[in-house]
Amino acid sequence: MSFFEHVDFEGARLPIWMAPEDYKKEIPDLHMLPQNFGDTISSIKIEGWSSSVEFSKMVFEDEFIGNQMNPVWEWRDPKGGGYWEEQQGYLEMRTEPGQDLWHGNPPGRGGNMDAPRMLMDVSGDFAIECRIRVSPQLKEHGGLLVWKNPRRFLRLEKTSGPHGFRGDVRFERHVNRRFQLVGRGSGLRQVRELYLRLERRGNLFSGFASENGTNWKSCGQTYVGMGDPIQVGVHALCPGNIPPTLTRFDYFRLFKRRKEAAEFIPVIKATKPRDTRTAEERRYEQLEYQEQQQSGVIEEPVEQPADERFEREREDERRRAARDVF
Fold first, then answer.
1. pTM for the full model?
2. Beta strands in the chain, from DSSP E residues, in sequence order
3. Are 78 and 100 in contact (CB under 8 A)?
4. Do 36 and 50 meet the contact criterion of CB atoms below 8 Å apart?
5. Which residues have C-beta within 8 Å of that of residue 230, sequence separation ≥ 6?
6. Judging by beta carbons within 10 Å of its beta carbon (0-12, 13-18, 19+), is residue 154 exposed, middle or buried?
């Protein structure tokens, strides 16, 4: 367990080791500590470990070998500013400044849902995991995404060097257009590889980060109600005015409990584009469309008069009949 002087796990840090047999530990007078806490502790972080033994059966893996997207994936890039490419053994996602995935603070001010992401369908409890290559310039900004709809999703990601978190890992929840920082994984800025893992048990979601895939640091836990099915995958961001980001994923893996592994059947996406939005997503986008119409951003198309359409249809029929004769 660690106590921090400031919010967002910043400032002086006081680590306290708790063994399994410890029932409680008393904290001395804060003024007697070498850390300068004053009278206030603003952040508390509980370090833990990933229960990878529970989700031990890997039911899906993509190592991004070749130049074709696995048919289970659905690529979403609302504004077309993102770019992905499967290299020989890793997935590369590029994003431009301003591509984000939140509703702003306060909601509706300064946010957008423009970040590119790759998602697949899943139901029930699970663990998802990815590995990100970390460059010396810390250009990476992205990670794991759990998505129900625009009003209910979770992000576990590595931030880029120019970002306010300066390359640390952060775990966020976004519910009803409101953002909350669940936890922060520090001490992993200068690693060569970063492992991220997110586990679901009912409505409880736990985030973890590691530099070796074995020893995991907890990034926090949160409860979010998400009915099945939901979508999971990877995303990349470039929030605010930071330089363009480049995030490289070595793999993505999905784990289940061994007794539940046989129930998992990958959902193959249709070859042709199809509407995969939920009813709530469609209502949300319709409201945004109506707001843009009212503000004059979108103009209504001019519809042809009914009699004019009728004459054009009759003319088309005459032309087809003449063509068939000759």
1. 0.69
2. 2-6, 10-15, 43-45, 57-62, 74-76, 83-86, 91-95, 102-104, 110-112, 117-122, 126-133, 142-149, 152-158, 169-175, 178-185, 193-201, 204-210, 217-223, 230-236, 245-256
3. no
4. no
5. 121, 122, 123, 146, 147, 148
6. buried
225-256 pLDDT per residue, tens: 999 999 999 999 998 888 999 999 999 999 99
Nearest to 206 by CA among 195, 196, 193: 196
Q: Token pair of 192, please?
A: 């060569």
Distance CA 130, CA 134 (A): 13
Domain regions of the chain by residue span: 2-44, 49-286
Q: Are 85 and 280 in contact (CB under 8 A)?
A: no
Q: How sure is the predictor about 26, in pLDDT bands with cuts at 50, 70 and 90?
A: low
**What's the CA gap between 207 and 209, in Å, rounded?**
7
- What is the distance between the alpha carbons of residues 4 and 273, in angstroms, rounded to a whole number? 48
- The pLDDT of residue 326: 44
The amino acid at 326: F
* Separation of alpha carbons 293 and 95, rounded Å: 28
| CB 176 within 8 Å of CB 161 | no
| 70-84 residue pLDDT tens | 899 999 988 777 777
Residue 118 φ then ψ, to 5°: -120, 125
Sign of CA dihedral 107, 101, 45, 199: positive
Give the three-class secondary structure for 237. Answer: coil
CATH class for the region spanning 49-286: mainly beta
Rg (CA), the chain: 24
Beta bridge partners of 120: 232
